[in-house]
Amino acid sequence: MSKTASEILMIRPASFGFNAETAANNVFQTAPETLTQQQVQQKAVEEFDNFIDTLRKKKIEVIVVQDTANPPKPDAIFPNNWFCTLSDGSVCVFPMYATNRRIEKRDDLLQMLTEQFKVRDVEDWSEYEAEHLFLEGTGSMIIDHAYKIIYACISPRTNKTVLEKFAHAHGYKAMLFHSKDEHKTDVYHTNVIMHLGDGYAVICMESIPDETERIALSQLLISTGHEIIPITFEQVRKYAGNMLQVQNKSGKKFTILSRSAYMSLTSEQKKIFNYHTTLLPIDINTIETVGGGSVRCMMAEIFLEKK
Questions:
Q1: Domain for residue 248, yes or no?
Q2: Residue 93: which CATH number?
Q3: Which of 110, 210, 264, 266 is the most core-located residue (most Cβ within 10 A)?
Q4: Domain housing 20
């Protein structure tokens, strides 16, 4: 059984836009040519609000936090990179690669979590930024909470040492591997090529050049009860690796993915998904194109117990 979150936190953007600093190693971002910054922000808010409506109609609990206007934070809509929560009562804050993303970390948000939930500890791993070592939350790590395994591909944003220390601190085993795109560039975030759900695992095996790593990964996923749904590089480009499974108030499981990811799936893949979960596609075209992140990046799972 996987541990699936029944509540998520999302940040409604105040100044969403193209972030040139993160574009250095995020090949998914595209600078808008025809839209003004204001139009991009407006479209992002429309997509965001529709996202929230879609979830709430399915009785999925969402905490919506409004992004602060100053300083402007183009990527604030992707909170899963700077913090995560664990069912042991930890709230963890992470070292971020882009200096202009570090301002996304908000004490008021952490304070709100400690007021509403039973928080045992707030851990801040940000000190590693001074050493240029990064671990960008659940962008870097795909966490199997049931089997206590963290899957991660090493990249400039996912440092092996910090990852191993984090895994060890929480009693998780780290399963590290290397992943490259079709141009032999390191895949910057594991959640671009991999998603774990209850009873299934989505992964782009062709992005893992080392055969030994591929076999070890497959064996571990199968031995922990996951049916593997392989995706292609082309599907990765459409964000088919960037999904998140959540459950609603009645315990029904939904796998949230973007409309472009859904459209890229074959009927055979959809059949396997439908056996395990209910697919919930959401159109976030502007956010994906300009921000270079998809639905998974927009949702921070809350595994904490309510007070």
A1: yes
A2: 3.75.10.10
A3: 264
A4: 7-301
